[in-house]
Design goal:
20 helices, 84% helix, 442 residues, mainly alpha
C-alpha cells in the first residue's frame, strides 16, 4: 500500500505521528512479507519432501504446535502488550517486573500441562483425533510448543516497546535456520516427518532462549525483584483485569484447531492432508495481518488513541479501503489452479477447492480482523469472551454436521463463518457505540 492510503486513516494525527505510524506498518509488513516468502519455501519443501501420510502427521503436529502455546500464552501476551504500551506511554520506563513474571508464569504453567498430558498421550490422542497413530505428532507438538511459547512471549515485549527491528529479526532468524536445515535434508532426499518436526522444535527453543537472554541481559535477580516491588500495583491490576482476555483467547485458539481434530475423527488421512495444505496457504496469507496487528494494538492502547470518534473514523475508512482486496483474491481463485497444482502436485487437487473456500475468509479477515485491537484497547474483554465462546459453539456444531458430508470443504466453510462472526460483530460495535468506558476495566 502507498503511504497516502494509511494517512487517510489518521487525519487527526500530526504529520510526524502519521509518518511514524506508516513507517512502522510498512516496515513490519515488509519484514513479515520477507519472512512469509521463506515460510512458503519451507512449506513447499515439506509438501514435496513428505509422503501424503507424513504430511497428515505434520498437519497434526502443526495443530498442536500452534494450539498449546496459544491456549496458554496468546491472551497473556496480548494483555501484556496492551498494559506495557499504556505504562510506557505514561511512565516512560519499562515494566521489567511485569516482563519477568510473565515469562515465569507461562513457562511454569506450560510445563505443568506438559507433564500431565505428555504421559497421558495415548488417551489424549484417542480423544482428540480418534486414533492413536498420531501419538508422535502429538508429543512432538507439545515439546515444540514450549519453544513457540518463549518466542511469542519475547516478541510481545518487542511489540509493546515498538521495537520492531528486534521483532522482525527474531522472526527472520528462526525462518532462515529452519529453511536451511529443511532444504539440506530435502536435497539429500532424506526429509521425513520426524526430521522436519525436530528441526522446528530445536530452532524455536534456541530462538526463545536467545530472546530471553537479550531482554534481561542488563538485569540480575536482585534488580528484577526490586522491579517487581516497584511495579506491584501494576502487576496486580494486570492479573485482575486480564482474565477475560485470556479466556477469550482460550476459546479462540480452541475452535481454531477443532477442524483438524474433527477431520481426523470423521475423515481419512488423504482428506486431512489436503485440508492441511489449503489451511497452510490460508494461514500464510493471514500472517501478513500480523504486521498490522503488531502496530495497531500498542498504538490504540496509548492514552491519546482512546477517543471513540477517532476509532470509529478509522474503522469505516479501513473497511472501505480493504474491501477492494476481493479483486486479487478472485483473480487467484479463477486462474490460480494450474500454478497451485504445479507447486503442490496433482495428488492435492482437492486442496485447491478447499483453498478457494478459505479465500472468502481471507477477504473478511483483512477487512475486519485488525478492528479487534480497538476493543482490546477499550478493555471490552467480557464482550470479546462472549463472542469467542459463541464462535466456539458454532464451530463445534458446524464441524460435527458438515465434516461427515463435505470433509475438508465443510471444515473450511465453518472456519470462515466462525471467524467472520467475531470480526463483523466487532466492527458493528465500534461503529455504533456512542459511549464506552475507556480507562476502567470491565
Amino acid at each position: 500500500m502507498k503511504k497516502g492510503l494509511f494517512d487517510k486513516f489518521f487525519l487527526n494525527f500530526s504529520s510526524g505521528k502519521k509518518s511514524l505510524l506508516v513507517k512502522n506498518i510498512l516496515g513490519v509488513y515488509g519484514g513479515d512479507l520477507f519472512s512469509q516468502l521463506i515460510s512458503v519455501g519451507i512449506f513447499l519443501l515439506m509438501i514435496r519432501g513428505l509422503s501424503v501420510r507424513d504430511y497428515a502427521a505434520y498437519t497434526v503436529f502443526y495443530a498442536i504446535l500452534s494450539m498449546m502455546p496459544g491456549l496458554i500464552g496468546a491472551g497473556i501476551n496480548t494483555s501484556l502488550v496492551r498494559f506495557a504500551s499504556e505504562y510506557l506511554s505514561v511512565k516512560k520506563k519499562q515494566p521489567y517486573g511485569l516482563y519477568f513474571l510473565n515469562f515465569i508464569f507461562q513457562i511454569a504453567f506450560y510445563l505443568l500441562i506438559f507433564i500431565i498430558v505428555y504421559f497421558m498421550g495415548n488417551i489424549v490422542v484417542k480423544f482428540l483425533f480418534g486414533q492413536k497413530s498420531f501419538i508422535s505428532s502429538f508429543r512432538y507438538g507439545l515439546i515444540g510448543g514450549l519453544g513457540i511459547l518463549l518466542v511469542q512471549s519475547g516478541r510481545s515485549i518487542f511489540q509493546a516497546e515498538e521495537n520492531y527491528g528486534s521483532y522482525i529479526k527474531t522472526l527472520w532468524l528462526k525462518q532462515i535456520i529452519i529453511f536451511l536445515f529443511i532444504a539440506f535434508f530435502f536435497i539429500k532426499r532424506s526429509l521425513n516427518f520426524y526430521i522436519g518436526a525436530q528441526i522446528i522444535i530445536y530452532t524455536n527453543l534456541l530462538i526463545g532462549f536467545i530472546i530471553i537472554v537479550h531482554i534481561f541481559r542488563k538485569y540480575n535477580i536482585l534488580s528484577i525483584i526490586e522491579a517487581i516491588r516497584n511495579q506491584f500495583d501494576l502487576i496486580k491490576e494486570f492479573i485482575s483485569s486480564s482474565k477475560w482476555l485470556i479466556i477469550y483467547f482460550v476459546f479462540l485458539m480452541a475452535f481454531q484447531r477443532l477442524d483438524v481434530f474433527m477431520l481426523s475423527h470423521f475423515s481419512n488421512t488423504e482428506e486431512l492432508a489436503n485440508y492441511g495444505i489449503a489451511f497452510r496457504y490460508y494461514s500464510a496469507i493471514l500472517l501478513l495481518l500480523g504486521s498490522i496487528h503488531t502496530v495497531l494494538l500498542p498504538k490504540f492502547s496509548k492514552i491519546d488513541m482512546q477517543d471513540i470518534n477517532r476509532q470509529r473514523e478509522f474503522t469505516i475508512k479501513w473497511i472501505k479501503v480493504t474491501s477492494w482486496i476481493i479483486i486479487p483474491i478472485l483473480f487467484i481463485d479463477i486462474f490460480g489452479k494450474p500454478l497451485f497444482l504445479w507447486l503442490n502436485g496433482q495428488q492435492y487437487e482437492r486442496s485447491f477447492t478447499i483453498f478457494v473456500c478459505f479465500s472468502l475468509g481471507i477477504w473478511i479477515s483483512f477487512m475486519f480482523s485488525p478492528l479487534v485491537n480497538i476493543l482490546k484497547s477499550r478493555k471490552s474483554f467480557k464482550f470479546l469472551t462472549s463472542l469467542s465462546f459463541s464462535a466456539f459453539i458454532l464451530n463445534f456444531i458446524g464441524n460435527y454436521l458438515f465434516i461427515p458430508i463435505w470433509g475438508g470443504l465443510g471444515a473450511a466453510f465453518i472456519t470462515i463463518i466462525s471467524h467472520g462472526l467475531i470480526n463483523i460483530i466487532v466492527a458493528l460495535r465500534i461503529i455504533f457505540t456512542v459511549n464506552e468506558r475507556k480507562l476502567s476495566y470491565e
